[in-house]
Amino acid sequence: MLNILKKLFFVILILCSCTYFNYSNTVFINIDTVSNNIKINKNQENNYDSVLQNFENNKYNLTKNKQKSKEVIRILSLDGGGTRAYLQAKFLEKFCQYANIENINEYFDLIVCTSAGSLNGITLANGIKPVKMQKFFREIGPWIFTIRSVKDIFSKDASVPSNKPNTFQKLLLMTFSNPFYKADSKDSNYGDAILRKTLTGIFENKLLQSIKTKIVITAYNDSKYYPMIFTNAELNNIPNIFKDVKIVDAVMATISFPIYFPSTNLCAPCDNKLPVQKIVDGGLFQRNPSLLAFTIANELYPSAKKYCLLSVGTGIGRIGLNTDTNEPEPSTSSLSQYMRLYDIVTTNSDITNDIFLKQISKSNTNSNLSYYRFNILFNNKNFDKDDMDTSTPEFFDYLDEVVTEQYENDKSKINEFIKQSDFYSL
């Protein structure tokens, strides 16, 4: 009898141990696969947070797999344009609210950007919200685009924000080959120094490869005279690529617009004959990189069923293909004429890319490209339509107004683009 009781005791002990083990390690959770609602056993209160976190992670992974299976590729293209890139951040804030997008870097598969558009592109790819970039342009922009005043002549710092050089100062600086916004010292509080310090505060010494979202940044190699790109993507059929580069160096290079900022010196990983090369503004290659973005997306995702390309400009004036201008033509031998020709070339290039992509997207009913471009036409005489270094509060307020107005005008087009780029509508 005693032996029977001992055996029974050991059986009960084993059963209790197994029950406790299963109870403490099994997740009691029911998931409605239609609504994604979850129900967790209240006896598991201690594990609630970890269970919920695991569920959210699994839900995100399942969503990613479902998106990938649809083979719909979302692309964001951002133009260059100095302080006018503020309007991109304003537009994307509205776009995210309208499309219920929490994180742009999870929404888009590829971001292609140029010059000041890269300030938006790289920060958005790093998870920074568009509204914070608006704050950056309003608070840091005036100190980037300023020079020292007469009273600052013996100081390395500037004392007045948004102090743009006048025409005489610009000519004087150009005569001595000094960029307008080259700071006196790397420790200065203005110009390229404050921009580099701000970017370093965000990205430290991280490489472009650390960004998870695929990103392409255009630039121009002024040592070897060819266009090039910085990227973290595997591009086998596109030449002149810098990959192992610091984020800060890549951005400083692409915004190095001649006359405005000094060039950025970088070592070329693919060319031992010329280890240090001068890299300048990406706008000299592609100020509107949308056509390049579409090309690269096809290279990265050749089997995609749909490419959805959102292109955001930085505004244009009544120049180039816009022939309804009443402005008198400058003298053919003047500096103004040379600047006007540059404006025509860059603006026509921007518009031509837009025309090509619209034609591709509408060429037939089975087109695999859904395309929308947001841009504005400057018509305010109070601001110089061609300047890229205006950074006053009034200018940013004006951009707020024109973005809001243009967004309302384009709401039906934007809504259609969002529907087209919906992974689950195909």
What is shown here, in short?
With 426 residues, this protein is α/β, with parallel strands linked by helices. It has helices at residues 2-25, 48-70, 86-99, 104-107, 116-125, 130-139, 141-144, 167-175, 191-203, 247-254, 283-286, 290-300, 335-362, 393-409, 411-420; strands at residues 29-31, 38-40, 72-78, 110-113, 214-221, 226-231, 241-242, 264-267, 276-280, 306-312, 369-374.
Structure in words:
The protein is α/β, with parallel strands linked by helices. It has helices at 2-25, 48-70, 86-99, 104-107, 116-125, 130-139, 141-144, 167-175, 191-203, 247-254, 283-286, 290-300, 335-362, 393-409, 411-420, and strands spanning 29-31, 38-40, 72-78, 110-113, 214-221, 226-231, 241-242, 264-267, 276-280, 306-312, 369-374. The strands form 2 sheets. Strands 3, 4, 5, 6, 7, 8, 9, 10 and 11 form a 9-stranded mixed β-sheet that branches. The chain is globular, with a radius of gyration of 27 Å.
Oligomer: single chain
**Could you tell me the strand content as a percent range?**
5-15%
Structural class label = alpha/beta
- Separate helix tally: 15
List unreliable stretches of 5+ residues.
Answer: 5-69, 319-325
- Quote the average pLDDT: 79
Using only C-alpha atoms, the radius of gyration works out to 27 Å
What is the number of E strands?
A: 11
Helix content: 40-55%
Question: Mind summarizing the main beta sheet?
Answer: 9 strands, mixed
Order of helices and strands: HEEHEHHEHHHHHEEEHEEHHEHEHH
The end-to-end distance, rounded to whole angstroms, is 72 Å
The coarse silhouette is globular
